[in-house]
Amino acid sequence: MNESPQHGLGGLRTLLPYMKAHRGRLALAFGLVIGVAFIEMAQPYLVKVAIDRYIAVPAPHAAAVLWMAAAYLGMTLLALCLTYGQEILLQYTGLHTVRAIRSDLFRHLQGLSLGFFDRNSAGRLITNVVNDTEALNNFFSQFLSITLRGLLSLLLIMFFMLRLDVTAALYCFILVPVIGAVSLYFRVRLRRIYNEIRNRLSASIAFLAENLSGMAIIQIFHQEAKQQRRFDERNTALRDATISENRTNLLLTSITELLGDAGVAALIWFGGRAVIRGTITFGVLYAFVGYIRRFFQPINSITQQLNVLQTTIIATERISRTMRVEPEIVELPGALAPPIRGEIRFDNVSLAYQPGHRVLSDIRLTIRPGEKVGFVGASGAGKSSLLNLAARFYDATGGTVRIDGQDVREWPLEALRRTVGIVQQDVALFSGTIIDNIRFFRPEIPEERVRDACRLVGAEPFILRLPKGYDTPLSERGSTLSAGERQLLSFARVLVFDPRIIILDEATASLDTRTEAVLQEAIHRVSRGRTLLVIAHRLSTIQDMDTIIVLDQGRIVEQGTHTALLQLRGHYWRLHRSGILLEEAAGSDSAGLPAHIHNAGGSGAVQAVGITPA
Amino acid sequence: MSGWGIVRAYIARNRAAYLVGISLTTLASLLAVLIPWLIGSFSDRFGGGSLTFRDTAQFAAAILLISSLRVTVWWFGRMMVHRKGRILTYQLRRDLFLKWGTLSPAYYHGQSIGDLLSHALSDVEVVRELVTMGINVAASGLSMLAAVIYMMSVHGDWRLSLAGLGPMLAIPLLVCCLGPRLRAYSLRCQEALGSMAQTVEEVFGGIRAVKAFGTEQVVIGRFEGKVDDIVAERMTFIRLSSFFEALIPLLANLGFIIVLGYGGWLTITKGITLGGFVASTMYVALLRGPLEHLGKVLNLIQRGAASLDRIARLLTVAATVRDREAGALLDQPLRGHVRVNRLSFRYPGTERDVLAGISFTVAPGKTLGIIGPMGSGKTTLADLLLRLYDPPEGTVLLDGEDILRYPLARVRQGVAYVPQDGFLFSTSLLENIAFADDQPDRERAGQAARVAALHDTIEQFPDGFATEGGERGVRLSGGQKQRVALARMIYKDAVVQILDDSLSAVDTTTEREILKSLGARGIGGNVASGPAARTTIIISHRLSAVQYADEILVLDAGRVVERGSHAGLIAANGHYAGLWFMQSGITAEELKSGEPDLADDMAAMVTGLTNGVESLDAGMNEETAA
């Protein structure tokens, strides 16, 4: 809540350009608010006029009173229309302003490069696009309309009071700062209590959610009583906070009402004397009693809106901070793609995500069209970073990455990403049907092409088993599919765009053996006529490659075929031995085992595995 | 108990507090009506020309006195009712959680956690609002309405009171009629907003894919569609709500207009006094708030009834797995002899046998491996051994006795379990590992962590064992989570231990080390005071986890298709052997022709192993930090 308070109200300036488009509507709404407030606030004044002119006079005028009532009926009906129009105008303005801001913000974010998304958590960005903009919406739907109305009502009450009697009015105005101070004091306290409630509520929710999903564990470990106690702590804390909220809220109402009645009592006392003396009429006294009660509501609702204002300022500041971020990767104007063959060249490439911390150095590598290249190395060796450069997710810090002879920075981005297809370990599926996910919501891609791709990767059998086949909607981002099925879909998705270069970034890491075999088969079929770059840990995937590149601390340390590399007895050989490379292979499993287990496992069989060159 | 029964019982239990609360609130309303009456009398004195200076002071003092009294009484009365409402919320939540603790996974399978949460949160709140507001409105709104009608008739004229209050009585009806529509529209706005949030979440979660396919424009189009939906839904809502918000003051003003016209005319024609007229204009204003609340309560009654029903249903669900009274085996110490005898099982309400005719015996201290593809029934078997579901009678036996005859607490003390997903709670790693205890034993947890090859990893965290696990805590890798779950099982130290694919995210090297120390623990006694021999059941889809077991069962579609030792199964050249070759990436021929210079490399391999594990752990930490 204390983020950049120095900006204060100035932060709201960001909203001005957006509101400018609605200048006319805002002005009209303002006019209507004045009308509504005037009609509402005229009530006590009217009764005063009725009493002083027509009722409490020697010659009462009954018809005039009826006429006044009729006129006020007309005004009230007018107020109905004005209120309605003003609400619609303000809300319309608010909604469309927020809509424009949301759209701009989202567009802007889409133009930013991956580096930005690495530095900023998805959660923060979601808050930015969803909640911060929603806070702006509250600014329009609540703050603007309520404070505007409140302020105008207050001013009109003062105006009517002054018109009735200046001295009495000035005495009454003393109440305004008093009410304001009381109200403000309670708002601050209430805000603290609401924050506390929110914290305790979310602690309870989190606890419940977690315990419900871990109920089996609780029962297996027979810890129901302990967890019940823990829940009780949170539940009690929440209960106490809510009771304290009730107490404070009721106190605020009580004090407000008491102050109002005290004002009325004071009026009766002093005003009554003035009436007796004849300095003011009875009707004036009546109107003052009416007005003094009307002081409270606008002041209360304005102080209530201060929270909204504060949230809005913070939200605007956060939004404009995001809007100020410049994209790091920009398409060269007028860029054209060269004829596509599928060749990749790294010329002395280096990369540092943060200055001084190089993740890649001195990479020189040429991959010929149609070649199959495997990349191995320990975690953090720079495998993914290297391949990310090929798709220009990042720009190299030094050197050039060329695809088909042209610097990737001179490629049109879209063409580049059509040429280089990446299958990632984490499969991102979106809500929508299977077919839409595969063609990435581009209806111009014909269904037949999607089917072809699915057949090629072996995804069609499981898709057809789903209730509606290709048109099955994915629930909760495909959580009902197995990891292997999701991976097959993502593989098909890459193929639909028919890239000449395919990158598999740990694409098989989380699959069970059976699915891996299916995928392995698919990779084999797909790689014909395409350049294939594979990061994998599994021997079975790596050993078929034309070339294997071994990376260590951002440098290429070895390069060659599986057999040749093993004979080197260098990095590859060590990786191989350590079990990092061969996750599933049993060769490394035999080492270091106690003798009895070793024998039980059949040592002869075990030893030979994995060190055998293909 | 029916939904309303819950509320009735609660109110009956707290009848004294509610009685006092209702009396005080009613008293406050009646006092509130006195103030316009006082002002009316004041006006009459003035109209009669008998108003003195003394009178003004007395009236002012009376108003102040009544107001202070009213506000105090009101505060106490409301507070009483509100407080009891909050306590009702608290108790309902407590009862729900208590109930949920007794329900078996069978129940949770048919429920979404989100639904259960919303019962515990919103349904309970709706019930509280209903009770609190219902009582408050009954006490204050209705008594005030009655008092105002009485005062207006006595002090003024009964025709005026009817005419003035008539249009105002439409307020609760209006609130009651339009309320549900407004709510439905507002829910649709929420849904539209939620739908946009979901789109945003998907896009940012999958931003790599979006970028990789160059589909930023497609995504922007989808997003803008959602934003437009929000605008459309909101405008629908606003059109109705603005109308509603304009109509309520209109009705209140109509009352005022009638009082002004008709009352003014009555005053002039001497039908009523000036004071009656003045007081009537004030009475009308007094009623607007309570009448709006009355409408809200009428709304709440429908919503509250549905919420109450849901809560009542939740509280009356019967637990399917529970202690059987007769012949419960209470104090037999378990030795860990597990026998499964022709076990077939289907989940309640389904048609398919998940397990069919499974039989095996594991003697104390022995290890059973169970292997099979997804859906072969492995986890179901574990669930039955833990009695998360009730197996058919006589099919699962512990120490020769039917598992159904043991009290649940006994079974769960004797059997420990490591789930596949490595589920952790959002408490410290120490508390997670020592979950089986009320007071965590740091020493014992350390030893358990050592057996799970986790001790050094934990020590490397800045907060060590105090590091928070679970959703909000440090982001542990899948393998680390599984090892914490394993340490939790080791800490519990039960005679039967079941590992359900518990090391699938741990690399094979570490897996082997863990299995080794897990086996050695019984003899060497890494964790003190443990039983000498533990029965271990290892379930896995990875052969490396089960290859050293005394017996291995190969499950497929709920049946045992092969059984034997690792060597025996390889020799049999069936399913198991096939899997083995596939998982190790070699062929049978290669297996026969080993590489001769292997023995020389043994020493080098051991060093390589240690380094490998370290760099792997380092890699995991890096990923965690990133």
Notes on the protein architecture:
The complex is a heterodimer of chains A (614) and B (626). By secondary structure, chain A is of the alpha/beta class. Chain A folds into 2 domains: 12-323, ABC transporter transmembrane region fold (Up-down Bundle), CATH 1.20.1560; 369-384 and 412-587, P-loop containing nucleotide triphosphate hydrolases (Rossmann fold, 3-Layer(aba) Sandwich). Helix content of chain A is 62%, strand content 10%. Chain A is built from 23 helices and 10 strands. Chain A has helices spanning 16-20, 23-55, 62-110, 114-119, 122-164, 166-173, 175-213, 215-220, 224-277, 282-294, 296-324, 383-390, 413-419, 434-438, 447-457, 460-465, 483-496, 513-526, 539-542, 562-568, 571-578, 595-600, 603-608; strands spanning 344-354, 357-367, 372-376, 398-403, 406-407, 420-424, 501-505, 531-535, 547-552, 555-560. In chain A, the strands form 2 sheets. A 6-stranded mixed sheet of chain A has the order 6-7-8-3-9-10, with helices on both faces. In chain A, strands 2-1-4-5 form a 4-stranded antiparallel sheet. The model of chain A is unreliable at 1-6 and 582-614 (pLDDT under 50). In chain B, 65% of the residues lie in helices and 8% in strands. Chain B has 22 helices and 10 strands. Chain B has helices spanning 3-13, 15-47, 53-102, 105-109, 113-156, 158-165, 170-205, 207-212, 216-268, 274-316, 378-385, 408-414, 429-433, 442-451, 455-460, 478-492, 508-524, 543-546, 566-572, 575-584, 588-592, 602-625, and strands spanning 338-345, 355-362, 367-371, 396-398, 401-402, 415-418, 496-500, 535-540, 551-556, 559-564. A 6-stranded mixed sheet of chain B has the order 6-7-8-3-9-10, with helices on both faces. Chain B has a 4-stranded antiparallel sheet with strand order 2-1-4-5, covered by helices on one side. In chain B, helix 3 (53-102) packs parallel to helix 10 (274-316) and helix 19 (566-572) crosses helix 20. Residues 522-531 and 585-626 of chain B have low confidence and may be disordered. Chains A and B meet through helix 2, helix 3, helix 4, helix 5 and helix 7 of A and helix 2, helix 3, helix 5, helix 7 and helix 8 of B.
